[in-house]
Amino acid sequence: MIEVRGLTKRYGPTLAVDDLSFQVRPGSVTGFLGPNGAGKSTTMRMILGLDRPTAGTALIAGKPYRDLDHPLRTVGALLDAKWVHPNRSARSHLRWMAASNGIPDSRVDEVLALVGLTEVAGKKAGGFSLGMSQRLGLAGALLGDPQVLLFDEPVNGLDPEGIVWIRKFMQRLAAEGRTVLVSSHLLSEMALTAEHLVVIGRGRLIADTSVREFVDRASESVVRVRSPQLEALRSLLTAQGLTVREEGGTTHDKPSLTVLDSTTEAIGELAAQSGIVLHELAGQTGSLEDAFMKLTGDQVQYHGTGAAELLEGFRTAPAQTPLQPQTPPGYPPAHAKEAGR
Ligand SMILES: Nc1ncnc2c1ncn2[C@@H]1O[C@H](COP(=O)(O)OP(=O)(O)OP(=O)(O)O)[C@@H](O)[C@H]1O
């Protein structure tokens, strides 16, 4: 279990994380979703004791990271997969990590097998592809067999095969009863990976909801309707206060109306009462972006930005910048304590 309460981080004039509260429960993958710069990495770094909050607390298994007796046995994290000594082999990298955390050597070969790196365990990690580096990072996160796992944009830059592998791996870890928090700026990826979503924008909580609910909101909202009496239908619907948009009307596509925030039942009955003939009446599965827009309208305005601008961040987000410092928890052991945090 991860519990974040009133978490706030200010970097000079930038409020990176703003009074954020949420819980991450065991047994399912929780997606931590937000556009680039929303504050996901900062939040994760505070949870992992790598950054000190300006206000608020982040607890893992009921304690701040710095108070954990065995950090690596409690929480594992994959922040930056390229954080390895390039001349070390995968096995010696993990052995060094295990030794400095009081974890028996035998666990190293177990985790190498878990992530499918046994055959290349003796090879220098510096020559690994991004996908292999991600697996090595995962092996490191799993060394202490922790119940809580955090992954920051784990599929960034991976090929489709690597993405599916990581996704299934995270789901398996959750199915074993672990608490899994995974950040992403991609709605579509999270819809496939996570069961629960914590959505943030500009450092603030926007939604804390199941993926199913999130998707349902999208599918409920839009109805497409065609009629030979399109103008009469449009007047009828707008008189009811509904938002109506005309679509199509090209040689390939007959004109239709898209009605927001209504149902096929309501529109069918209205049309029947007015004697309007319908040629098509279909509930449309809205995109996740539609659901996001619906869900965030007010909060987005609160931040003084348009929903479209925020969504633009989801669609055209540039590659993630590396985290600073690039140090996973437990490296070196009790480093947070030594730093006096
Ligand atoms: N060390 C730092 N010093 C100053 N500003 C920072 C620092 N780290 C993050 N920020 C700022 O805090 C805000 C949140 O950044 P953060 O990296 O947490 O967002 P994010 O959601 O993880 O996005 P990304 O996916 O791009 O990493 C941004 O405006 C960023 O520029």
TrEMBL record:
SUPFAM superfamilies documented for this protein: P-loop containing nucleoside triphosphate hydrolases (SSF52540)
Keywords: ATP-binding, Nucleotide-binding, Transport
GO molecular function: ATP binding; ATP hydrolysis activity
Chain residue ranges for the region called Disordered: 319-341
Annotated signal sequence range: none
Taxonomic superkingdom: Bacteria
Family matches, as PROSITE patterns: ABC_TRANSPORTER_1, ABC_TRANSPORTER_2
Xref: SMART domains: AAA
Domain annotation ABC transporter: ranges: 2-227
Pfam families to which the protein is assigned, alphabetical: ABC_tran
Homology family: Belongs to the ABC transporter superfamily.
Alphabetized PANTHER family for the sequence: ABC TRANSPORTER, ATP-BINDING PROTEIN (PTHR43335)
Annotated protein name in UniProt: ABC transporter ATP-binding protein
Organism: Speluncibacter jeojiensis
